[in-house]
Amino acid sequence: MRRSRLGCAAAAAFLLCSVAAASPSPSAAASEGETCSDVTVPMCLDLPYNQTTYPNLLRHLGQEEAGPELYTYFPLLKANCSDDIRLFLCAVYVPVCNPLRRPLPPCRDLCRSARRCQDIMAKFGYAWPESFR
């Protein structure tokens, strides 16, 4: 049976709700060395989350480092090759803050949806990045 995009969205909503419920209070977070910060990368501002943590899955240390690399994929957004490419890219480059204090990878359905863009990348001589696998 094929999993729907809604399945991934429902999982993301559950995760985001779980993260909110499990997040320590601001004073507890500060005392425990919480590394979450407000999302500032414009491409990722209107997502279902507004806090991020670093290092991300690609080992960037902050939004200042991840943002410029993220914007190299802006043509994929313009090409509209996947409804989920922006959410996927933001999940990789500007990951949601969570109580586990490590970046969470995008769910499999989100990855599969975003991967539809690899054909457009190939037309311009670019391969789907190995780091996205």
Walk me through the structure.
By secondary structure, this protein is mainly alpha-helical. The chain is built from seven helices and two strands. A two-stranded antiparallel ribbon has the order 1-2. The protein is globular. The two termini are 23 Å apart.
* CATH architecture assignment: Orthogonal Bundle
Described by the principal axes of the CA atoms, the overall outline is: globular
The CATH class: Mainly Alpha
Q: Using only CA atoms, what is the Rg?
A: 15 Å
Question: Key features?
Answer:
Frizzled cysteine-rich domain, two-stranded antiparallel sheet, single chain, mainly alpha, disordered N terminus, 133 residues, globular, 7 helices
List the helices and strands and how they pair.
Layout: H1 5-22, H2 26-31, E1 36-38, E2 51-53, H3 63-70, H4 74-79, H5 85-93, H6 108-114, H7 118-123
Antiparallel strand pairs: 1-2
Brief description of this entry?
The chain has 133 residues and is mainly alpha-helical. 45% of the residues lie in helices and 5% in strands.
